[in-house]
Design goal:
Largest interface: A-B, 13 and 15 residues
CATH architecture of chain A: 3-Layer(aba) Sandwich
Number of helices of chain A: 3
Strand order of the largest sheet of chain B: 6-3-2-1-7
Strand order of the largest sheet of chain A: 4-3-2-1-5
Oligomer: heterodimer
Distance between the termini of chain B: 23 Å
CATH topology of chain A: Hypothetical Protein Ychn, Chain: A
Order of helices and strands of chain B: EHEHEHEEEHE
CATH superfamily of chain A: DsrEFH-like
Order of helices and strands of chain A: EHEEHEHE
Number of domains of chain A: 1
CATH class of chain A: Alpha Beta
Largest sheet of chain A: 5 strands, parallel
Radius of gyration of chain B: 15 Å
Shape of chain A: globular
Strand content of chain A: 15-25%
Shape of chain B: globular
Structural class of chain A: alpha/beta
Number of strands of chain B: 7
Strand content of chain B: 15-25%
C-alpha cells in the first residue's frame, strides 16, 4: 500500500475558512513537495469541506487557498484521501474541486494513514 | 541512536506546551537525540521576547531557553508564521549600546533561530520519529 517515496502524511480535520489551519497544512505540503518528498493528504471530520466543490472564499474576503489544490499534479502530490464516513455524516456528495481524490471507508482510511512514517495534523 | 524531532503549534500560555517541554526533557534524559524543535502556527509565540506571563504561572519561555543552553537544542521558528504574529528579527543585527550594555532590539528570543519550512523538512528527514504538539 505504501510507496517509500511518500513518507509524510498531513491530516486535515478543520473546516477551510474558520481558521488558517488548512492553509498552514497546504504550505507544508508544497514545501515538502518542492524538496521532492510529496506528502499524502488526508481529509477527515470538518476537514472534508476543504475538498468540496463550488465554494467561494472571496465572499468571505478570504484568499482562496483551495484554488492552489489544482496545482497538486504539478507538485507530484498524488495521494489525496478523504473519509467516507465524515462525508456521510455531513450529507456531502463526492463532488470535489480536484481530480484523483480517493474516498476510503473508515477502516481503510485509518489503515492507510497508519502506513506513513510521519503524520502531522492540522 | 534514536533521533526525535518535535513540532510545536501551541502558544506559550497553553498547558499543551508544558506537556511538550516535559516530553522533550524526558526524551533527553533517556538519551534520545532531539535533532530539533520546529515552532509553527501559534507555536512561534514561544519565541517572543515580548510575551510576559505572570510570575506565579509556568514560565514557558525560560524553560525553552534552559533547554537550548543546557542541551544546545536547536529551536527553529517559521519565519512566515512569526511575521504574521508580529515577530521580526529586525534589530538583532543593529545592537544599540546603552551604557556598557548591548541591547538586542529583536522581537525574538536569542535562543531561537528564524528558519523556513525547509528546516521542518530537514529535521523530519534526520529524525526517526516526529512528534507534534
Amino acid at each position: 500500500m505504501k510507496d517509500n517515496q511518500h513518507e509524510i502524511a498531513l491530516l486535515n480535520s478543520k473546516a477551510p475558512f474558520s481558521s488558517n489551519a488548512g492553509k498552514d497544512a497546504l504550505d507544508i505540503a508544497l514545501v515538502f513537495a518542492s524538496f521532492e518528498q510529496p506528502p499524502a493528504l488526508f481529509f477527515q471530520g470538518d476537514g472534508v469541506h476543504q475538498l468540496i466543490s463550488n465554494q467561494n472564499a472571496n465572499l468571505l474576503s478570504i484568499k482562496d487557498y483551495l484554488k492552489t489544490f489544482s496545482a497538486f499534479e504539478f507538485y507530484d502530490i498524488e495521494e489525496v484521501f478523504i473519509c467516507q464516513t465524515s462525508l456521510e455524516e455531513r450529507n456531502l456528495a463526492c463532488q470535489f474541486h480536484i481530480d484523483g481524490v480517493q474516498v476510503l471507508n473508515q477502516s481503510d482510511f485509518s489503515a492507510t494513514l497508519l502506513s506513513y512514517r510521519t503524520v502531522l495534523r492540522f | 541512536m534514536n533521533k526525535l524531532a518535535v513540532v510545536i503549534t501551541t502558544p506559550p500560555y497553553s498547558n499543551l506546551t508544558i506537556t511538550a517541554l516535559n516530553y522533550i526533557e524526558a526524551a533527553l534524559s533517556a538519551n534520545v537525540a532531539v535533532v530539533g524543535v520546529f515552532f509553527y502556527q501559534d507555536g512561534v509565540l514561544n519565541a517572543s521576547n515580548k510575551v510576559s506571563i505572570t510570575s506565579d504561572e509556568f514560565q514557558t519561555v525560560s524553560r525553552w531557553q534552559t533547554l537550548h543552553q543546557v542541551h544546545q537544542l536547536p529551536l527553529h521558528l517559521c519565519n512566515t508564521a512569526g511575521e504574521k504574529r508580529g515577530l521580526s528579527d529586525e534589530g538583532s543585527d543593529s545592537e544599540s549600546k546603552i551604557g556598557n550594555n548591548t541591547e538586542n532590539n529583536s522581537d525574538i528570543n536569542s535562543a531561537f533561530t528564524v528558519s523556513g519550512l525547509g528546516e521542518l523538512v530537514e529535521i523530519t528527514n534526520q529524525a526517526q520519529r516526529v512528534v507534534q504538539f
